[in-house]
Amino acid sequence: MRKRLVRAAAPAAALLLIAGCAGDDAATVTRGSLSGRLAGSGATFPEPLFERWMSHYGTHVETGAAIDYRPVGSGGGIEQFLAGTVDFGSSERYLRQRELAVAADVRGCDAVQFPVVFGAVAIVLNDEALDGMVLTAEVLARIYDGQITRWNDPAVAALNPDLDLPERRIVPVHRSDGSGTTYVFTRYLTTEVPFWGERYAEGTDIDWHETAVGGDGNAGVAGAVRDSAGGLGYVNQSHADEAGLATARVVNEDGTPVAPTLEATTAASAEAEIPDNFQFAIDDIGGAGYPITGANWIFAYTCGYDGDTAALLRDFWTWALNDATADRFAADLGYAPMSRSLKTRVTEEIRHINADG
């Protein structure tokens, strides 16, 4: 069922705002004054962007800072964050109430979670001749369920009357690790296709059909698709671009086939209704929006960091959200930056990091 939601994200010029210590009104940080190391882990979905952000920040913004991010998948990022082995975690899904309860019990204070960027999950194809082909949620679900096994299946042909579809067998590729990209993809299928919700549901780890092939991380899925004749998989848009793979257009809620472009991702993210606790999903996308769109969340704590680590955590994520160069990096890699109003809300949330000491 189609629903129009509150406008939440759109292209916007960035406002340079540097947050200082939590609870300090209008506090600023003197550039060059921060030093230390941060360790984070989690989603592979934002890895290309995080790598660019962290390299630039450590080279040009705070040269005494070093940030190590390990792309272990969203499931691993949540696990390592809750285990306290990293300073921050990252995932394409937010922490749920049971996980927030675990975090509070382990750390002795509340967790902080906030979105930092939006991105598309692209459907990638092995065959360049199929670039731009049209697929629907129903057809994708049936491919991953083993019901549609060849490219010239009548259901695929009906969507692509102008394509000469091969008889070749389809090789569906999925993430073999705990993955937020999987969560975004399977939530989309669950929302749109009744049988998918009954048989598989949504999640970071799915009990896939026996015909599907696993790949580790976005790069592993892209590689498996590239190396498999008839391969089809789902990856972050930047990984699709980096791998040079053909992509499909996916039919959105208004019946429009849409490619996974920055503009289409931004249009989709603009329909997300984002509550005060930042727990949301991007569903039922129409208009010019690409329908398989998700966000990336960062997790931190309201206590337990030393002063230098806390200051660096707050400053880096505030810089990433509000600096014009950081926004340009996001756009170059196909990620949609958040609107100014949402950035303001998230920046205030970042100030809660280590607020309880």
From TrEMBL:
Top-rank taxon, per record: Bacteria
Keywords, in A-Z order: Phosphate transport, Signal, Transport
Pfam short name (any one): PBP_like_2
Record-linked InterPro entries: ABC_phos-bd_PstS (IPR005673), PBP_domain (IPR024370), Phosphate-bind_PstS (IPR050962)
Keyword Signal: yes
Residue ranges occupied by any PBP domain in the UniProt entry: 33-323
PROSITE patterns: PROKAR_LIPOPROTEIN
Signal peptide: 1-26
Family the UniProt entry places it in: Belongs to the PstS family.
Protein's recorded name: Phosphate-binding protein
Organism per entry: Streptomyces johnsoniae
Phylogenetic lineage: Bacteria, Bacillati, Actinomycetota, Actinomycetes, Kitasatosporales
